[in-house]
Amino acid sequence: MNNPLSRPALALRRIAPAMAVLIVPALHAQSASFECSHAGTPTEHAICASPALGKKDIEVAIYYRLLLRLKPATAGMAYREFDDQLRDQQRKWITDSRDACKSDLQCLGQAYDKRIDSLLRTFDQNAALTFGRAAD
User: Is residue 1 part of a domain?
Assistant: First the structure.
């Protein structure tokens, strides 16, 4: 199989939309993970204007929030340290990658794809503790 994602990551991709209704109830009726009527930057306007980017924005928000609920499997890492690191990475991605694209749709699409892959890798690295076995 040529798919670089592990079984847990593939399972997460399949169940995330269904879990969104439970974990992120406010997002299911929105076109992005934030209120588009409050969009203030060219990046936010571009995300709200593009259904594909809005979907990716919601996907990133779902994976991010799921990871905040995940127990870290990284040796010696406390929950708070894991959460702090994840939050720092998300803030850095927003400012250094996503917002750097401004309204460039291709750039935004690539930034979202890379972030989704990064979040799924983080899930793979930490799924063993949560699910009781190593990720394949």
Answer: no
81-106 residues labelled b (16+ CB within 10 A) or e (exposed):
ebbeebeebbeebeeebbeebeeeee
Helical pair 105-131 and 7-23, crossing angle rounded to 10 deg: 100
Domain count, the chain: 1
Instruction: List phi, psi (to 5°) of 26.
Output: -75, -15
pLDDT digits (tens, 9 = 90+) for 51-105: 999 999 999 999 999 888 876 665 566 778 888 999 999 999 999 999 999 999 9
**Is this model's pTM higher than 0.85 or not?**
no
The answer to whether position 104 is within a domain reads yes
Q: DSSP string covering 74-128, please? A: STT--HHHHHHHHHHHHHHHIIIIIGGGTT-HHHHHHHHHHHHHHHHHHHHHHHH
